[in-house]
Amino acid sequence: MLLERPYSQESEESASAGAPGTWGAAVYLHPGDLHVGLTPCTLQTIVGSCVAVCIRDPLIGIGGANHYLLPYNLNSGEALRYGAVSIPRLVNELVRGGARRSRLEAKVFGGACMLTTLRARAQHLGAQNVQLPAPPDGAGHPDRCAGRRR
Questions:
Q1: Nearest-CA neighbor of 50 among 35, 61, 39, 65?
Q2: Mean pLDDT by 10-residue block, N- to C-terminus, for the chain (150 residues)?
Q3: 107 contacts: CB under 8 Å, gap ≥ 6
Q4: Which domains occur in the chain, in start order?
Q5: End-to-end CA distance of the chain
Q6: Catalytic residue selected from 41, 50, 54, 145
Q7: pLDDT number for residue 126
Q8: Residue 113 is a catalytic residue
Q9: Cα separation of 120 and 15, whole Å?
Q10: 3-state secondary structure of 129
Q11: HSE of 11, CA atoms in CB hemisphere, 13 A
Q12: Gap between the Cα atoms of 108 and 21, Å rounded
């Protein structure tokens, strides 16, 4: 079943009716949320060191986005607040809705260094969120989606 509303393991549904003159319903993504749909909507979120990944298949018009807080969970948790869980789940939901991996286009937002004292460090949390490195225990990289990056 294709997700037509935000999906979250931690928060309640956060879609609201769009205001007059907006493009479809307004969907606010809280940390740990994921949204996939065929219906045009306005996605909103606020990221700092968190990351939002927006992916679409332009041929069939399906798209989605996630909002995650951390790159991975060393305890092998399956919560969507981890990029290593959320990104593959987003891609899988898009494919389940008819998208082809080879046509997917992605944009990544966020990954900022929010603390001035950490800006000199190359591996602050925001940078780790964007890079999604392999966990130190060698569990491997999360699935990567095929397609063009912008």
A1: 65
A2: 46 41 78 92 90 94 92 81 91 95 91 75 76 45 36
A3: 53, 54, 150
A4: 7-132 (3.30.1330.200)
A5: 29
A6: 50
A7: 81
A8: no
A9: 38
A10: helix
A11: 18
A12: 27
